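ESCALATION

Customer reports they have been waiting on this structure for their group meeting. Please prioritize. Original submission:
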Amino acid sequence: MSSELERWVAVAPPLSSRGWSRLVLPSLLPLAALLLYLLHLDRAPHPDELYHILAARGLLETGEPRIGEGLYPRGFLFTWLVAQSFRLFGEGLATARLPSVLATSLLVLVLFVWVRREAGDLAAGLAAGLYAISPFAVLIAQFCRFYALQTLAFILALWLVHDFFRTLAPWPRGLLRLLLAAALVVLATLLQPTTLLGLLALASWVAPILLWRLATPLSHRGRILLLAVVAAAALVLLATAWALGLIATLWQQYRAVPVFNAETRDAFWFYHFWYVLLYPTLWPATGLLALLAWIRSPLLGSLATVVFAIAFLLNSFAGPKSLRYIAYAQPLLFVIWGIGLAALFPALRAWTAELRRAMTGTFAFLNLQAARLASFVVACALGVLVAVNPFWLRTATVIADIPVPPEKPSTDWRLAASALAPWIARVDVVVATEELAPLYFLGRADIVHSRSKLNELPATERRDFGRDPRTGRPVIGSLEALERVLDCYPSGLMLAPAYHLGVPHQLGPEVLALLATRAERLSLPERAHALAWIWQHAEPRLDPSRCTDLPVFRP
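Update from on-call: job pushed to the front of the queue and completed.
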């Protein structure tokens, strides 16, 4: 590194690397993160969380991850952890989220220890600290789903691969690291298949390193021959995959989206939008910070840069999009920022001191107060530079469960339970546009009305009144099927979250018009953000022969 570059790119002295601080520093940050993630942990759940909550209850009661008459084996390890949390602390929303809280807190510790070893305390504190308080960390920490565990497993796998290339340990230890990394990647993939995108990104970092190390001892002619062999093998593999139809199948899966996620299918700017919205100062500087991280810590800097960049692009052009889908790669962005900012710290400190001296001269007419005022003004300017990154505001709104437009308020069926209990106990059928929350909070949801859920059914069940294997509930998606339910069952209750109002595949105009003529709207507490309709008639309105094949439900 040139002396001129060293003047600008350096590492600040570690905050402390001796004695008690070796344990205290990596302990305080995860503990602070843990306390942050425990705030408001019992708020109303997202429907996806209830898959694991209900399955964990079924696991404790039956020994299988059952939801009603269905079976939910996906992410079984996470469901098992939720069940153990219930066993130890009792069933509840807060205890259901504890496995995610603990996994994310442990992830903060892993980031700190890993980055500190490679780039010092300051880089570690910035990387792990910024990640810990980011809305991305809070989103998975307070979510009863497998994303936190997936992210922890993937980051640990990256650390092991990084260490393999860093130390080049003798083959028994090196092989053990690679096998453990492979096991962690398999675990992360079983929890969430988006890990495969991260695996492809990791391969994009590993392959050039392996080629470089294989080519180094070779002659110029040998290197050309090696590259030719590798290129030929790659072409053969691609041609074979194309001929077998594997590429077409993988592309179809890569771009396929469920109905509820269709709006963002082609929004390749989705993740860029969120990053530039929450971190308008840091995100545009990511490229430069990545170069600084690469210079300061070549192996970790290059790993974080390549894996995050490839994962970011692959997730951006994929069909389904959600901030949780890219959770496995997001810690690497903070590794880049942490190492890059720490490398710039000496230059930033010198520049700030020079700015303070210049401002002191500007305020010289104030005599003794000039230096204090200059320090205050510079501190305010730096504070504004940080405050304009509204990640902190988003973190606060996520924890407080405050929706930010265009988000809609969460539905809390607990607040509507007493008003709905008499109807739940006596109607012939309960129809729900989202069945998991009524099942958990109200104890009943007989038929699911959702075109999105209908499209998620196995091909053999993808028809009106086909059974969802996850819950055992029949699912309908057409207006004709809903009209048949309203006419065949003498009494019934229709339930929906308020945020489904106006959504075409849930409560579109045609469904609302049908309910307006066949059912009566019930009054529910406004804070529940829930909708309900009731209908009652003495006998079926249709020819009884058209109703005989419908299931019979009992309260």
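Sent to customer with the following note: The chain has a mean pLDDT of 91.
Escalation resolved.
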